[in-house]
Amino acid sequence: MPRILIIILVIGFALKVVPLFFNKHDFLFIEGQLKMDIKIRKADLGDFNQIDSLSEELLGSSVGDREEMFRKALENKDYLCLVAEINEEVVGFIDMWSFPDVSHGAYLAQIQNLVVTEKMRGKGVGTRLIEEMIRFFRKRKYHELHVSTEKKNRSAIRLYKRLGFRKEQLLLEMES
Questions:
Q1: Residues 100-123: pLDDT tens digits?
Q2: Quick one: which of 148, 111, 150 has its CA closest to 132?
Q3: Hey, how many other C-beta atoms are within 10 angstroms of the C-beta on 126?
Q4: pTM
Q5: Taking the chain, what is the end-to-end CA distance rounded to the nearest angstrom?
Q6: 3-state per-residue secondary structure call for 25-49
Q7: pLDDT band for position 3 (50/70/90)?
Q8: Alpha helices, DSSP H only, in the chain?
Q9: Does domain 38-162 have CATH number 3.40.630.30?
Q10: Where in the chain is the domain with CATH 3.40.630.30?
């Protein structure tokens, strides 16, 4: 069977099957690739339930009052939280704290959380969230941007390195 006929059959099949699972607004055709239409925006209090569900998916139940902590964080000028939406559903979030560092004599920033719902991992959501946070970091002219993950989280480590994070340090943690 000629290649062109196979390609036409595959495209025809995709055009008939894909719409059964997604509507036409879920995808954009960019640079020759089909990509999901991911909207990134600043989070607000109305996003708490979805952020709470994502946090629960990652960490399990909270040790304190997530809603109170989210409210306090949003009130802090040194905090930024972004959400990723597909079809008005929050499918991921990232948050970052900035702080003055005496040793550097400049502001540093720390990505605290990056959470993408399991069904959307590997589809570019985390990449878009990090890229947007990096843009904000550069716009503010902070000196360093830090991110941490568990040593066993190889996919997150690959993602961070692909996006330019290089210098590795050891971060130790103590829970109360």
A1: 999 999 999 999 999 999 999 999
A2: 111
A3: 22
A4: 0.78
A5: 66
A6: HHEEEECCEEEECCEEEECCHHHHH
A7: low
A8: 3-21, 48-59, 66-75, 125-139, 154-162
A9: yes
A10: 38-162
